[in-house]
Amino acid sequence: MIVHIFPQPKLIYHTESPFSGEISVCEFMGERLLKVNSYTQSSYPLKEDWGRYNKRYWGRVAREAKELLKRESPEVLILGFAGGTLGHLFQRENPKVKITGVDIDPEMIKLGGDYFFFQKINNLDLIVRDAAKWVGNNLDKKFDIIVLDVFKGGNFTIDFSRELLMNLKSINRGKVIINQVFPKRENLREAIDKLKKVFDNVNAIEVPPGNILLVCL
Question: What CATH code would you report for 51-216?
Fold first, then answer.
């Protein structure tokens, strides 16, 4: 008889949050993972081998942002910052990037600092606030890249309201990249229709296993 022994995640930290639910930090296959209700929200490569993300969600967003990150001092807004994987990737593209990260859950920001090396991200401004409300109160600002990746307790919580979309367009001077999972194709079509009423160009990109990036210009 052959017994196969498969590696198991090593639990580092576990807590409960009124915003997100069950949160855990674990290490598995060379990565430190931030999980919410068993869904991976963020990852950090323990050997700094960032190339492992090239074909995953974070790497695809970084490729979409690459040209705009070549600007001298690009300004980036990440709504749903969590453990900051995108922040690290963006800084690797341009060390002068200025990043504003917004997350509604203070526990996420705390864990990011404790376990996901926020101190390595220069020019990082972290804000604990509801993403839509923060955008609505900061319409005087401008960003070269805006990433909307709002995820709460295992569910994506973007409502695609016209007010939110108009506000995002108002502060955008490059691209708005929205990460979403759609249970049905008609949900995707409805979202694209709403986006096209606000943005001139909308492109949907599938990222396995189930993410959809909506890139808006």
Answer: 3.40.50.150
